[in-house]
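Sequence in, structure out. First:
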Amino acid sequence: MDIPKYNGNIHPDEWIHDIQKYNYMWGKNYGGFLNTAISLVDPTIKLSTEIRDIEELCNALKENISFTVFKNTNKRKLQSLKYIPESRGGDTSKFISNFLKLCYNAEINDIEEQKNYLYKSLPMNNYFSSEFYKKMKDVNSVNELIKEFEDIIVKESNLIKDESIVALKHIATGKYLSSAENLCYTTGNKFQLVFAGSLVPDPNSLWKIKFGKELATYNNTSIKLQHIKSNNKFLGIYGCCKSPSTYHTEVSCNSTSNIINVGYISNYWDENWKFNNSKLENHQGYLKSNDIINLSIENSFYNNKVEFLRSHDIQFTIGNDTFQEIVCHNERLGGNDEWCIELIKQHIWTIDD
């Protein structure tokens, strides 16, 4: 039988609770429950000889200097505690369990003090700082604290971070924005084709999103979409080129260096996109997975006229293959201009980026 002894490395309340299950046995043997419990205390912890019951024993253990050291040790552990998301190899469930245990051991029961320790454990970036402040200001219990913390973590796992892998689904037709290396238009400048492809994400529909900071905010972030399977090529437009079926602005996959190599003027190649919420014009916040967005770009060939990314049921053929057209236009926005951005793989930033 492995009977727990007390050596100052466990909270007295927890130790008393652990040995209570032996009460039925010690009550009639070994000199009684109280005397047996006292005998299990490490001899380096000096106790009064006048302890009359378990409550007095527990209080005596708390008054000993070993308990002060124990509490302070757990406070220092709280101060150095760092939250690591699952995307970086962490475990939120174990973190919360450890956090609550340290608070218990250190006898930190004040909710504001608990908030402070939890906040300091988070990665220091704008998202965690702003979300924690907004959600925690009205929290008044431990259960609320953990619930709101979990909500922050769930939302963080869906954020679109710089250099993450994404796919863009056309809402109206359900097809994904795609390109294929070395498959080119037969019209216009014969650049690499962009089309609405399969109904599920496939290698041709994967893009690396780039915007030069960890998170993309609505209304003030410019993004680039680099095609994963192509050699350093981005989604963009060469303003004077027309789409093969509807003669709107042609959308292609290319790079500035490639345009120069084939003898075109690189100033007319545009690959910087803006995004906005398709339903709420002044929507604030961070871009996240499953947001429904409009994508726009300035056409430098036409004095930076703003045009929007669109697809529709209209098709065109190259050889024996048929493709669903993708264009840019400056007409009234509608359902054909809505795209759902889906997070395929979140880029892992360092902890305090």
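Second:
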Amino acid sequence: VVFLLELSSGPQGLDRLLGTYALIPARLSWAQPLTGITLLTSAFLHGGWFHLLSNMWTLFIFGDNVEDRMGHMRYLIFYLLAGAAAGAAQVVFDPLSRLPTVGASGAIAGVLGAYFILYPQGRVLTFLPLFILPWFVEIPAYFFLGIWFISQLSSGLFNLGAAGTPGSYGGIAWWAHVGGVVFGLILVNVFARRRSRRVTWPAEGFGPPYLE
């Protein structure tokens, strides 16, 4: 819905929308109280169809399992807080940037961090290009997410060291991704419900129950 609003705003309206609701670290760093809300609102803005669809596809793959463990309301609160934590991490590591930061990937990174803890033995069907033939292979979730996190962290460190001027980050908020994952790893157990232990009685009705 928000993205459709972006599309219908026109160039000037889009500029106003981004200027008001996108996360701009330099502006937030000036301690203007009302700009703090952009830590949340920026997660509902996107830079284009590919940006939106790739984020929603990732959320679709990993989010439902995490939501099952947390419940609807806890999952919603977790998602919003992960987005805010991701935005805060981006501000900390790129405080002088005047570029608007938008996208749900920081919040989704928090979901990925939670998935890593809750379902480390899960399998992720991954597309790997092999010459001109599509090749799909199942990869353990801990390996897939671990490699992804390392790539985000290393890219963030590289850009942090290579940036010649404040805010030159190549258009990707690496530290928002890192911050989201760290939030998810640390706080997942605060939001996840403990699995209930199922009681199984012997078929004949004799003997003690088994706890599974």
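Remark: The CA atoms of residues 80 and 151 lie 24 Å apart.
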